[in-house]
Amino acid sequence: MPQTLLDIYRKALARPASAPFLRAKRGGVYQDLTAGEFTRQGEALAAALVAQGVSPGDRVALLSENRPEWLLADYALVRLGAVSVPLHATLPAAQVQAIIRDAGARLVLVSTASQRGKVGRPSWLARAPAVIVFDAAAAQPWDKTLSDLLAQSGGEPAPGEEPKAEDLATLIYTSGTTGEPKGVMLTHANLVANLTALQGIADLGPRDVALSFLPLSHVLERVAGTYLVLLCGGVVAFAEGLEALADNIREVRPTLMIGVPLFYERLRAKILAEADGRPAPVRSVIAWAQAAAHAAFAARQAGESPALPLRLKAAVADRLVGARVRAVLGGRLRFFVSGGAPLPVEVGAFFHTLGIPVYEGYGLTETSPVVSLNRPGATRLGTVGPPIPGVEVKVAGDGEILVRGANVMAGYWRKSRATRTALEDGWLHTGDLGHLDDAGFLVITDRKKDLLVTAGGKKVAPRGLEERIRRHPAVRDVVIVGEGRAYLTALVVLREEALRARAAEAGIARDGGDLLKDSRMELLLLGDLDRLTSDCAPHEKVRRILFLPEPFSLATGEMTPTLKVRRAVVAARHREAIERLYEADAPARAAWIIRGGRLFSRLSRLTRWARRSA
């Protein structure tokens, strides 16, 4: 039974030396790094790090995109009992240096020239040499290069004692959507407990190939997308980046991928857009096939066996549409995994009907990371699945989700007060709100800190509202604001093509750039949103809309490296525009606008009906 990550690595490497282990682009072509090569290079790097003064317990920062050297460095640190401090490659220099200082890093391993530049000349680190660079051309005169270290070690295996289960394995700094990033301390025992549980329920084997594109600095990709796949005998291939992902999928032909909901939303939108561009007869066939596949899937979700005619229709639909989409995605995809944020139900259903189920899960960095997971034979859309083996979940009186298990962190680095607040009697207070349904599936409703309290004292959970609003075809993203206010306002990022189509339906004919300045668009969208939230209480209704000209992004600080929206940053960036929506006459104006929106929406529907009738 594995006790440490070194045991996990050794078990994963217990395949023929010539067998593929990792796969990456070199010279424009995907090439394999075999198990034997990985072991030799990993041991040599560990020996080189010992020569550089790395000892058990030393923190070593790792700033790199996904590539084989990331895993080689990780293996070497595990082999020595050192503590890895992975940093998101998208972090700016100030945050990189702040984390390295806070962790007290002994060394910094970096990949490229751009990442090297973020570190600067680290005279503030304890001992030199401070930086080891993967790409030799990026090295500064005082740096060491990976190739030089491997050559100097002579390929000798690393000496020294091996890690123990209770030892600290990694220090992962949270993205900080609601405050200052904290270093999460995960032991070998924490990570191995999660891996062991996942291995027991995972449908993975030696034939699997995972395409890795979420950052390895994110614990979900590192544990479930890499360690687990390798442990089960599979191969991990690294994508070149989001911009090359479509090409990489066709080249690698993966059997599984782990992503965040934004990835699946965009992939769905692209598939639908391509379908809309086909001739009318083809669109009709696609629509029929989607309806048949969805009906069969809905029956299975309800616990029923589809009738024979429906099963036959679904089989034809899969042949006509599902199989063709799967072929475009490499032809071997068995399933997706989604985590990090809520997956819209309609997005999950879409891929299920295409024969590529999306298994949504839930977890935190503090839980190593997986708490619950949908899986074959135990899937309910709209939930994050039942807890995995060995993990206990209960719901506190205020609705907060509490988690207990061997996977729960040791605490926060140098933050004893935050640790005491988060851990009480062995239970981790997740900060998420939710409940367990009648079958024991976990449902997440919101973040505790995200709850809004209006001026009237009413509590509003914004996430559920935002999920509904995103169902509008013209809405790309949305953030609800209204803390201490008389009513709610939606900050909306729009999809230009869908917006033009919706405006045309309503008889608003303008160029896309002018639409946002047309007062009728707010009326139109408010009417649409009123229908999408028809069963919500009055205080949960959106009364004003602020159209944002640009999507949320990492560059503006509005999103974390794991693609979660930072609400506070979004609200602060647009503070002046928000304030104008809450001016002295705004309550009366908001009431008039929402009534006008309903009327405008009804009139636009009546206009469409009249056109069809004519």
Explain this structure:
By secondary structure, the protein is an alpha/beta fold. The chain folds into three domains: about 5-165, Rossmann fold; about 260-330 and about 335-450, Rossmann fold, CATH 3.40.50.12780; about 450-614, ANL, C-terminal domain (GMP Synthetase, Chain A, domain 3, 2-Layer Sandwich). About 40% of the residues lie in helices and about 20% in strands. It has 21 helices and 26 strands. The protein has an eight-stranded mixed beta sheet, sandwiched between helices. It has a five-stranded parallel beta sheet with strand order 4-3-5-6-7, with helices on both faces. A hairpin with a 5-residue loop joins β20 (about 425-435) and β21. Mean pLDDT is about 90; it is low at about 125-130.
Secondary-structure map:
Elements: H1 5-12, E1 20-26, E2 29-34, H2 35-51, E3 59-63, H3 68-80, E4 83-87, H4 93-103, E5 107-110, H5 113-119, E6 131-133, E7 144-145, H6 146-153, E8 168-173, E9 183-187, H7 188-201, E10 209-212, H8 219-231, E11 235-238, H9 245-252, E12 256-259, H10 261-276, H11 280-301, H12 308-328, E13 335-338, H13 345-353, E14 358-363, E15 370-373, E16 391-395, E17 400-405, E18 411-412, H14 416-422, E19 423-424, E20 427-436, E21 442-447, E22 452-453, E23 459-460, H15 462-469, E24 475-481, E25 488-494, H16 496-505, H17 512-515, H18 519-532, E26 542-548, H19 567-573, H20 575-581, H21 586-613
Helix pairs in contact: 2-3, 2-6, 7-8, 10-13, 11-12, 11-13, 18-21
